[in-house]
Inverse folding.
């Protein structure tokens, strides 16, 4: 393993009070190498500098620990996972988690399958499909303790993508950058319509990430109406509750 990689990931994880074993560090390094190699032939990430990948992808993904005691959760779905963020870093750090990675692009799912195989991860699966479609599938609907997403979309849209996966009493946590107050206000009606309430917003900064980060914590109070999510494309074009 590259010594610089080890130094950066150790210091980054310590900022969020996470200590990695040697095996976990090796897994992160192999994941980094695969990300860079596959990125040469397909668009997985615009971030390729080693330090940036460590802080802006790996540490940022695991920063969920600032909002939730992840070790107490059983099942997690990562909606719009892309190259596996935050789901794979969370699985590496919390191997007892049962993880589903959902992405709408099949070639990204092939990459995720390869990572899962090479890192010898168990109780984790990559699923190809749109959130609007998979969220209606009874195999996945309202089955998860925790839904997370780093996808770039407004909170009203993300809530419609993600809340259908969360069991009653479970949580949806959205990773956000910068000031989120206006977005929170605009998503308030959507969150209520989808059976949830905003429980907290955890704000923080991490060295190597040049923006304030926010984790928006939404609790699922009641079962979601069968009409949600709406058909594919509508949540993005016509966000719920936005006048």
């Amino acid at each position: 393993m590259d010594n610089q990689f080890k130094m950066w990931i150790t210091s980054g994880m310590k900022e969020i009070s996470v200590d990695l074993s040697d095996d976990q560090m090796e897994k992160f390094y192999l994941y980094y190498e695969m990300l860079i190699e596959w990125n040469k032939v397909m668009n997985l990430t615009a971030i390729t500098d080693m330090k940036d990948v460590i802080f802006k992808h790996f540490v940022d993904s695991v920063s969920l620990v600032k909002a939730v005691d992840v070790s107490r959760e059983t099942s997690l779905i990562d909606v719009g996972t892309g190259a596996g963020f935050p789901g794979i870093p969370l699985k590496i750090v919390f191997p007892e988690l049962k993880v589903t990675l959902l992405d709408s692009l099949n070639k990204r799912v092939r990459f995720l399958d390869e990572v899962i195989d090479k890192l010898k991860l168990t109780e984790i699966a990559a699923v190809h499909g749109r959130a609007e479609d998979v969220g209606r599938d009874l195999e996945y609907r309202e089955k998860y303790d925790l839904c997370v997403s780093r996808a770039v979309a407004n909170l009203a849209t993300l809530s419609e993508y993600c809340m259908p996966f969360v069991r009653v009493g479970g949580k949806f946590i959205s990773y956000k950058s910068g000031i989120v107050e206006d977005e929170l206000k605009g998503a308030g009606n959507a969150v209520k319509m989808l059976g949830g309430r905003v429980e907290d917003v955890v704000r923080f900064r991490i060295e190597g990430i040049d923006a304030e980060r926010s984790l928006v914590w939404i609790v699922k109070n009641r079962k979601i109406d069968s009409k949600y999510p709406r058909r594919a494309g509508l949540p993005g074009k016509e966000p719920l509750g936005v006048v």
Summary: DSSP finds nine helices and seven strands in the chain. Strands lie at 75-79, 98-103, 124-128, 144-149, 166-177, 196-204, 213-220. The CA atoms of residues 31 and 115 lie 7 Å apart. The chain has a mean pLDDT of 94.
